[in-house]
Amino acid sequence: MPVPADALTTSASGLDPHVTPEYAAFQVARLALARGVTASQIEAVIAANTEGRTLGILGQPHVNVLKVNLALDARYPVRHAPAA
Questions:
Q1: Which of 45, 72, 41, 47 is nearest to 61 (CA)?
Q2: Backbone phi, psi, residue 17, to 5°
Q3: Which carries the bigger pLDDT value, residue 14 or residue 20?
Q4: Regarding beta strands 50-51 and 18-19, do their DSSP bridges make them parallel or antiparallel, or are they unpaired?
Q5: Residue 56: predicted pLDDT
Q6: What residues contact 22, with CB distance under 8 A and at least 6 apart?
Q7: pLDDT (tens digit per residue) in 22-63
Q8: Contact between residue 30 and residue 78 where contact means Cβ atoms under 8 Å apart
Q9: Is residue 9 pLDDT above 90, yes or no?
Q10: Residue 68 CB neighbours (<10 A)
Q11: The dihedral of CA 61, 10, 39, 68: what is its sign?
Q12: Closest by alpha carbon to 71, among 49, 53, 55?
């Protein structure tokens, strides 16, 4: 899969509030592996948190990263290895 443009142009802080649907899709496999769930479960959360154009004509569709992360944490917490 080609790397989406916003994967290369977003800020280095990692605190961007929105990404393109293409960039979110680019990360599905990694998120599914980290959370021990299927790609389709991650895709459903992303789809539920994808917002359209403002007033139907302004801007581009985008994925609200904060809402996705909160939904994933609530439904599929990251599985950590037990402490030794």
A1: 47
A2: -75, -20
A3: 20
A4: unpaired
A5: 75
A6: 4, 6
A7: 989 999 999 999 899 999 999 999 999 998 887 778 878 899
A8: no
A9: no
A10: 22
A11: negative
A12: 49
- The structure tokens listed for 60 are 């581009």
Model pTM score: 0.75
CA distance 22 to 19: 8
Distance, CA of 42 to CA of 74 (rounded, Å): 12
Q: Where are the domains of the chain?
A: 16-75
- What's the pLDDT score for residue 10? 61
What pLDDT score does 58 carry?
A: 80
H or E stretch covering 50? strand 50-51
Strands 50-51 and 62-64: antiparallel
Q: Which residues pair with 58 in a beta bridge?
A: 54
Nearest residue to 37 (alpha-carbon basis) of 82, 75, 83, 81: 75
